[in-house]
């Protein structure tokens, strides 16, 4: 639309509400309080908020990329060091959640490959199937048979027993 309109051709209809005319010399208290509120409360709060947002924009923190420091394993904790036991347990729980997500991601990739390939899924998705088999075997070796209430101590004992069985099998094979 052109900027210079022909106002005579497109006349604005007159308003039906008459304009308010002041008949008093005393200022309206509502506008006075709105102005005072704007300068006393709203302006400083807005300034502080914008300053905080500028500072946060400089130092972005992505909570979903949080990296925890690795703590000693339960086997490395000293006897009676309960804080180390607690940290090792928390580390084990995080590792278990990460391993569960890895298995789930590989399973989703295999499902997507099967959906994409259709009848040729056995031929074209063999790599994904092998990867899923390796990941689930590793997960089962580490966390299998622990149940819902498994913890770092029972997982460590399971690994210890598995290593002892492997050692016995190796000794029997060598004899």
Poorly predicted ranges (pLDDT <50, ≥5 residues)?
none
* Main structural class: mainly alpha
The count of β-strands is: 0
Q: What is the 3D form?
A: elongated
- The gyration radius over C-alpha positions equals 35 Å
Domains (count): 2
Q: Order of helices and strands, N to C?
A: HHHHH
Give the CA-CA distance, first to last residue: 97 Å
User: What is the percent of helical residues?
Assistant: 55-70%
Q: Count of DSSP helices?
A: 5
Give the integer mean of the pLDDT values: 87
Main sheet attributes: strand count, strand direction, barrel closure: none
**DSSP strand content:** under 5%
Structural notes for this entry:
Belongs to the complex I NDUFB10 subunit family. It comes from Caloenas nicobarica (Nicobar pigeon). The protein folds into 2 domains: 27-63; 82-173, no CATH class. It is built from 5 helices and no strands. The protein is mainly α and 175 residues long.
């Amino acid at each position: 639309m052109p900027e210079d309109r022909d106002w005579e051709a497109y006349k604005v209809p007159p308003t039906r509400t008459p304009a308010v005319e002041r008949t008093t010399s005393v200022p309206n208290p509502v506008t006075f309080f709105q102005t005072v509120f704007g300068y006393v409360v709203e302006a400083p709060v807005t300034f502080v908020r914008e300053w905080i947002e500028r500072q946060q924009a400089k130092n972005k923190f992505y909570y979903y990329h949080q990296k925890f420091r690795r703590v000693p394993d339960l086997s490395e904790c000293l006897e009676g060091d309960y804080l180390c036991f607690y940290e090792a347990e928390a580390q084990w729980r995080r590792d278990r959640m990460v391993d569960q997500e890895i298995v789930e991601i590989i399973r989703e990739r295999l499902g997507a490959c099967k959906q994409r390939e259709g009848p040729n899924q056995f031929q074209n998705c063999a790599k994904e199937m092998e990867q899923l088999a390796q990941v689930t075997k590793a997960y089962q070796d580490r966390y299998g048979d622990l149940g819902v209430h498994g913890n770092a101590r029972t997982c460590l004992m399971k690994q210890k027993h598995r290593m002892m069985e492997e050692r016995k099998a190796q000794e029997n094979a060598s004899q």
